Amino acid sequence: MRNRFGEQLERLHVEMIQMGALCEDAISAAAQALMKGDEDLARAAGEAEREIDQKEREVENLCLKLLLQQQPVARDLREISSALKMISDLERIGDQAADIAELTRFVRLPDGPGRQRIEEMSKAVIRMVTDSVDSFVKRDLELAREVCREDDQVDDLFNQVKKELIGLIAADADSGELWLDLIMVAKYLERIGDHATNVAEWVEYSITGNHPSNN
């Protein structure tokens, strides 16, 4: 029975890695679609988002089977219940990547500081998503905490983008709608960072039994 449980737990790890990889693909495709004005990449981000939704259902079903059939206790129970929380955040990451891709129908990202900041944000949040899922699979508490620290960098980048774009709105009111759309893109990326942080916090709970929000 325990061997069967171990196999199913390993499958959960694989499914989580695959879901995380789909999130990375969705963010990358959406960001590149925005940079290049590429509708094919925008569609790829939308397709990845649909695959993430399907993966969420598959992982949820696996977690429920583990809970109902194997009746795990202590650490194993925390790991499975944390995975159920994490997939909700990963699903929201897919939604927000798709939202960015949708904006590419109306936005062409111009050269300038704002573009550079948004590129930096997209790379940072992809790294956060990767590391948060890796920390779960590897049970790496320090990596999970590093993800939480990286969120401060993403927040700083968002504030810089917002400040720069508000300045552009004041200087070029005719392009105000474009700058507002780009603020929305930056906000979506900032929210992706928040969701990756949530994942990392659930990793910490799964390992220690203590959620950072309780500190």
Keywords summarizing the entry:
elongated; PhoU-like_sf; phosphate transport; 87% helix; transport; PhoU; mainly alpha; Methane Monooxygenase Hydroxylase, Chain G, domain 1; Phosphate-specific transport system accessory protein PhoU
Q: Which fold name corresponds to the CATH topology?
A: Methane Monooxygenase Hydroxylase, Chain G, domain 1
Principal-axis shape:
elongated
Q: How many strand elements? A: 0
Largest sheet: none
Kindly name the structural category.
mainly alpha
Which whole number gives the mean pLDDT? Answer: 90
Subcellular location: Cytoplasm
InterPro entries: PhoU, PhoU-like_sf, PhoU_dom
Subunit structure: Homodimer.
Function: Plays a role in the regulation of phosphate uptake.
Structure report:
The chain is 87% helix and 0% strand. It has 215 residues and is mainly alpha-helical. The radius of gyration is 19 Å and the shape is elongated. The two termini are 37 Å apart. Plays a role in the regulation of phosphate uptake. Belongs to the PhoU family.
Task: Summarize this entry quickly.
The protein is mainly alpha-helical and 215 residues long. The protein is built from six helices and no strands.
Set down the secondary structure blueprint.
Layout lengths: L1 H35 L2 H32 L3 H30 L9 H26 L2 H31 L4 H33 L7
